[in-house]
Amino acid sequence: MISVLSVVTTLVVATSVSHAEDNRDKLIPEYMALGMDCMKDQMLDMETCKEMLKDGNDNSDEKYTPCKCVPTCVAKKRGSMKENGEFDIQKFTENVDEFGHQPWSDEWRAVLEKCKDSFKGLLNCEASAAFGTCAYKNSQMLRDEVSKYLGQVE
Questions:
Q1: What does pTM read for this prediction?
Q2: Each residue of 100-153: pLDDT tens digit?
Q3: What residue spans of 40-123 are helical by DSSP H?
Q4: SS3 87
Q5: Residue 85: left if φ>0, alpha if ψ -120 to 50, beta else—which one?
Q6: How many CB atoms within 10 Å of residue 137?
Q7: Which residues contact 105 (CB under 8 A, 6 or more apart)?
Q8: Domains (ranges, CATH) in the chain?
Q9: CB–CB of 78/9 below 8 Å?
């Protein structure tokens, strides 16, 4: 789940992306460092977090709370989630575009269209979990990116 939002949140700002510089080498380590900072106080078990991404999993179990809250922490640090726990979609889009990688920007827009209702009415960790799970299910590109950092989920 860390990579879900650190890659989804990381699949994260410019005005004309087609001319933007590819900043992935700079920004991915920054997002990963934020994720590590956010994990500091959590008793995070990556295998438990990977379970959350499996089809049919009941993500309401308390054991998943740390997995849900790390992406929220990263999103708040990057300004793509407001302090009240709502996503700031404009800022999230800017964060994705900041990477300067058009395929990620295009995929973000497609995923947002498919998942925009998944986090409706949810805040903080629950919003992050709902959006991350939806995005993961609807984006092969995201699943491939997550696999780079977490290994295969299925």
A1: 0.79
A2: 999 999 999 999 999 999 999 999 999 999 999 899 899 999 889 888 877 666
A3: 46-52, 65-78, 89-98, 102-115
A4: strand
A5: left
A6: 15
A7: 17, 96, 97, 99
A8: 2-150 (1.10.238.20)
A9: yes
